[in-house]
Structure formats: C-alpha cells, structure tokens
Amino acid sequence: MIPSKPRAAAAALLIAAAGCGSSSSGGIDTSTPTAYASATVQVLNQSFKDCYGSITDVYSASYAAANAAQMQAEIAALKVTFDPAAAAACISGLQAQGCWAMVLPVPAACHQVFTGTAGAGGACIGDEECATGLHCSAGSAPGSCSSGTCAAYALLGQSCASTACTPGTTCNASRVCVAIQLVGAGAACDNNTTVCDRGFYCASGACATLPAQGASCATSHVCAIGLGCAADGTCQPFSKLGASCGGSSQGPCGLPPFSGMDCSASNACTALVAAQGGSCSASVQCVSGTTCDGTTNTCVPLLGAGAACTANAQCWSGTCSSGACTSPICGP
C-alpha cells in the first residue's frame, strides 16, 4: 500500500541536527548532517523511481538543504549533537525497507541520529533540541518558532492525552501510548497501532494481500508494488514515460503525482511535475521542495530560515514573518 503522502521521508529528515565524524552506508556518505539529509533524499527518491514509476525526484535538494541549514545553526549554538554511526544505520535501514520505506515505521536508528542538550524544563523550538527521553512541548503553533520547554515523553502504557508518546509507540483511541505492531494476512489493522507488514494493505480493518498482476483492483494504491490499476479494473505494470496509456489493460503512468507523469490527451505518458528550474504556472506542478515563481514561471527552491520573503508559499516552513522565513522545524 502507498500512503497519500510519504511518511518516512519527513520523519527521517526532520529528526535532524549536525556534527562531524566519518561514516557511510552502502557507499552513501552520512558523515555530516548535510550528507545525512542528502542521503535520505537520495534513498527515498530512488525508492520512488524503482517502485512507483517515478521519473523525477519526489524530494528536491532544497528539501534537504533547508533542514540541514537549520540543524547546522543549532549545532553551532551547542543545542544538538550528531551521531554519524546512527546516521549510517538509519540510511541502511531505509535501504533495507526498499519499496516499503514509504509505509513502514521509520527505522529505530533514525531516532538516534541527533540528540539535544536541553534538559527537562529547558527552552526549545523543536524535539531535536531536547535530551534523550524528552520532547519539546511548545506553546505555539508549528511554524511560529516561539520557545517551548523540554518535557518527558509519555511512556508505553501511560496517558498521551496531554503529551507526546515516546518514539516507536503511538497514541491509541483511548489516549494511551501503545507499541506499533506489524501484522500480516487476516490480522486486524488500523494504520496506527497495528500496521500491515510489507506485501499487505489494510482493507476494511483487516490486512489483505496486495493484488498481483491481473487481479482485480479499485485504485492503484491497492496493487502490488510496481503495479497500477488499469481501466479494466485489473492490476497491471506501470506504463513508462513516452509509452502508450489509457487502454483497458494498460497500467497508469506511474503513480501520479509522485511519478511526475500523467496520461495525455494523445494517450501517451508525459511529464507532469516540473523539476527545479522547469517551467510552471502553479506550484502544484513543481517537485517537492520547490515552488512556482509567478514572475519567472519557473520552479524555484523553497527558502530556508532567515531568508527574505514576501509570501508564506516561498518558505520551506510555510511561514513568512516580518519579511523573513521562519524555521522549518518549530512547534510541538
């Protein structure tokens, strides 16, 4: 199953800070916060290309750069430390998940890459600034960058009515922290406390096997990896860029909008999402991490914290305040 928007990418990148050291994973450099952020983008972009028919990067370089810049500033202020060994393990974990990196819980090592220095009651603007076992309980909405205070996570079995659950657990309907379980065929699921393992999806509250090629389907989100739902209601391989599409037994052009393609009026798979520097008329046409500049009609990188701005849409954080972009990592 493919979620409506990627989860693992955001979780892995937003657990960010900085430091130094020497480490790598599968030939990918993870020795610095900037390298780690770039590695995460590289692995997840490749996953989309290999598994979902993507022809363009789902996450742009500016996606990683904005987070890395923020974390470098926090390291310089001695608010966080960076563990390159954990960074390497995190990337290895994402690589091992392969096509399932978008739906499975983030590898545990990703939560250990950065450690904050602020103790309980210390000032913070994000979880990454708090010491192990603590999170930032900010008193303002995400994006506003008002200081919060570091507070203890709710542990397994404790109430999460007024505080966040410790990483690796989730808040259930009864507002109690419980472990996230990966379950298989026929098991009850809710995509929160019980998540279907690779090869399955949650259908009417129970894990079902993802339909194989030729099996019936309702949407492309419930076909096996690499397959989409064709017009005849069967799972078929995704069509590639330039290939014919729209026929009854032809698979869709990757998985729009993540594939960067769609079936044109002439029944051919054509590019849908513009890369950085590409032409556009609206930001929805631009790859993630960029926005459409109304003056040049090109996709330009979103601006990082402190950059001059005139509109919220220009900023990675989504907030332009007093002529400058706020931090991309703020709030609870």
Q: How would you describe this protein?
A:
- This protein is of the alpha+beta class and 332 residues long.
- It has helices spanning 8-14, 33-52, 61-76, 84-97; strands spanning 24-25, 28-29, 80-82, 114-116, 123-124, 134-138, 148-152, 169-171, 177-179, 181-183, 194-196, 200-203, 206-209, 227-229, 235-237, 261-263, 269-271, 290-293, 298-301, 320-321, 324-325.
- Among the domains are: 8-117, no CATH class; 153-209, no CATH class.
- It contains 4 helices and 21 strands.
- It has a 3-stranded antiparallel sheet, with no helix packed on it. A two-stranded antiparallel sheet has the order 1-2. A two-stranded antiparallel sheet has the order 3-4.
- Helix 2 (33-52) packs antiparallel against helix 3 (61-76) and helix 2 (33-52) packs parallel to helix 4 (84-97).
- The model is unreliable at 1-24 and 140-144 (pLDDT under 50).
Distance between the termini: 29 Å
User: Which segments are poorly predicted (pLDDT under 50) over 5 or more consecutive residues?
Assistant: 1-24, 140-144
Helices and strands, in order, run as: HEEHHEHEEEEEEEEEEEEEEEEEE
Number of strands: 21
Strand order of the largest sheet: 5-7-6
Mean pLDDT: 79
Secondary-structure content class: alpha+beta
> How many H/I helices?
4
Rg, Cα atoms, Å: 21 Å
Q: What sort of overall outline do the alpha carbons produce when their principal axes are compared?
A: globular
- The amount of beta strand, in percent, is 15-25%
- As a percent range, the share of helical residues equals 10-25%
The largest pleated sheet is described as: 3 strands, antiparallel
